[in-house]
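Need residues for this backbone.
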């Protein structure tokens, strides 16, 4: 069994047996960022998303909630159980990556290398911010598009064996088209991502993008 699956199962077991539930750490938008409406995802200086992640291999499978705050200065990724207990927290800022999982803290200068070392899976953490927003990364080969010229299927051969990404459905969030369901496959590793909410963010002093009124589309 891989490390991350063991961490996940241990966390679920602890929650089921314990009479006191510890809620997961909540992540708040930095003070200098506000929710905005955009026409295209490329206009978003930063974004946050929440959804679900399902992982399957030939030996194991599990699913978690996922939260991701992405900005040029900082990335914060959190996986939680359905009850809100934090399984994993990955933070990257100023060239330092910190991974908190199973009560232990790990650090590295490369997020993908760190997550692979701890989880045992080569999860494409560097490419996911673009794939989650329906964009291609370096090394992507577009195989097919839909009727609106959005990616339907691509292959990335920068890592061998290659990753195959399928964009199963799309949705409108924060005024822009973003994927709703994505399937990622590589050998026997299958990742299924569902974006329930995606929110574009921008600095408060940025006036080219319209801020949202009230809490519309906020997470």
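Answer:
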């Amino acid at each position: 069994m891989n490390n991350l699956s063991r961490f996940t199962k241990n966390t679920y077991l602890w929650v089921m047996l314990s009479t006191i539930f510890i809620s997961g750490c909540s992540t708040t938008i930095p003070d200098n960022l506000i929710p905005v409406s955009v026409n295209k995802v490329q206009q978003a200086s930063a974004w946050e998303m929440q959804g679900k992640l399902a992982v399957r291999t030939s030996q194991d499978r599990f699913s978690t909630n996922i939260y991701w705050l992405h900005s040029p200065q900082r990335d914060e990724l959190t996986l939680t159980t359905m009850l809100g207990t934090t399984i994993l927290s990955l933070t990257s800022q100023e060239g330092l990556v910190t991974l908190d999982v199973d009560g232990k803290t790990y650090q590295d200068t490369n997020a993908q290398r760190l997550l692979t070392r701890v989880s045992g899976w080569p999860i494409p953490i560097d490419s996911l911010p673009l794939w989650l927003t329906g964009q291609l990364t370096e090394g992507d080969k577009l195989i097919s598009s839909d009727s609106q010229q959005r990616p339907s299927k691509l292959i990335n051969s920068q890592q061998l064996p290659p990753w195959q990404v399928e964009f199963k459905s799309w949705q409108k969030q924060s005024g822009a088209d973003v994927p709703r369901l994505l399937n990622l496959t590589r050998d026997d590793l299958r990742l299924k991502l569902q974006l329930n909410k995606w929110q574009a963010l921008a600095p408060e002093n940025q006036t080219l993008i319209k801020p949202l009124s009230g809490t519309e589309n906020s997470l």
